[in-house]
Write a structure and sequence with these properties.
There is one protein chain. By secondary structure, the chain is an all-alpha fold. The protein is 50% helix and 0% strand. The longest helix has 23 residues. The relative contact order is 0.20. About 4% of the residues have low confidence.
Length: 120
């Protein structure tokens, strides 16, 4: 029994440490900065977000999800998700980043939009 646990632990360690392919690393990569969308005009950003949500059949308020691996094995658990699931999770992260930019700039309320400019 003890040997089985040692072999399992070494397999998980090897599988998770090769090239950044662990589940937790891949899920962390889905979280994106919203600043990259701040220069996109509001109407384009809303259309882009809605199109991405429709393409992946996600709600427009999608957020990235994280699995809960066994305690302490997160960095060593290999990413076994299908390509479709990885793509959907990545889209959720993009939608969340777009929403944070949309909320910050009040894009859904054009009459109240904040102008981000330096004082003149």
């Amino acid at each position: 029994m003890r040997w089985n646990m040692m072999i399992l632990a070494s397999c998980l360690l090897t599988a998770g440490c090769v090239g950044g392919t662990s589940m937790s690393e891949q899920q962390d990569a889905n979280v994106q900065s919203s600043l990259q969308y701040d220069n996109v005009p509001c109407d384009q950003l809303l259309a882009q977000r809605n199109g991405l949500a429709q393409q992946y059949n996600l709600p427009t308020k999608a957020k990235p999800t994280f699995s809960n691996p066994a305690m302490g094995f997160g960095p060593f658990t290999p990413d076994m998700r299908s390509k479709a699931k990885r793509d959907t999770d990545k889209a959720s992260g993009e939608i969340d980043a777009m929403n944070r930019s949309i909320d910050r700039r009040d894009c859904e309320h054009p009459d109240k939009q904040k102008k981000l400019a330096l004082p003149g």
